[in-house]
Amino acid sequence: MKQATLCYVVDGSRVLLGLKKVRFGAGKWNGFGGKIENSETPEVAAVRELKEEVGLVANDLKKSAEITFLFPHKPEWDQVVHIFVAKNWSGVPKESDEMKPDWFDVSELPFDSMWSTDVDWLPNVLAGKFVKGSVVFSSELTALKKELSLL
């Protein structure tokens, strides 16, 4: 199964999200991340993806979740996602070919334009809790089954 990362950049009560412009997830707001390359750790991949997608360098990362996303209709999409929060970084967010960044207040996240299950785990991650579990998606990309636990 593929391994991937997501990184959420947090500045006080704000979180930086990216509007995905191309490929899988296009049109949805999300954290920054992608596939872990063969020789990378999840942390190294998260730092690389954050730099590539929005031009920021994470100076610290806290692993905050590990969620397996399953797509029975498209098993090639199945992936374990290592989710990080960065509260210390350098650089200025800039738009890339893949992502358009914008800041959102944590209390006003655009859940209607995000993956449908983000509302079930992302607030806990942003509140400093660790989430572990799995989500099974239907062919319409709605959740068929969710098993999420706070650790």
Word description of this protein:
The protein has 2 helices and 10 strands. The chain is mainly β and 151 residues long. The strands form 2 sheets. Strands 1, 2, 3, 5, 6, 8, 9 and 10 form an 8-stranded mixed beta sheet that branches. The protein has a two-stranded antiparallel sheet with strand order 4-7.
Q: Mind summarizing the main beta sheet?
A: 8 strands, mixed
Estimated radius of gyration: 14 Å
Q: Provide the CATH superfamily.
A: Nucleoside Triphosphate Pyrophosphohydrolase
Distance between termini?
Answer: 23 Å
CATH topology: Nucleoside Triphosphate Pyrophosphohydrolase
Q: What count of domains describes the coordinates?
A: 1
CATH architecture identity = Alpha-Beta Complex
Mean pLDDT: 96
- Which bin fits the share of residues in helices? 10-25%
Percent of residues in β-strands: 35-45%
SS elements, strand count:
10
What structural class is derived from the secondary structure elements?
Answer: mainly beta
Low-pLDDT segments: none
- Principal-axes geometry comes out as globular
Number of helices: 2
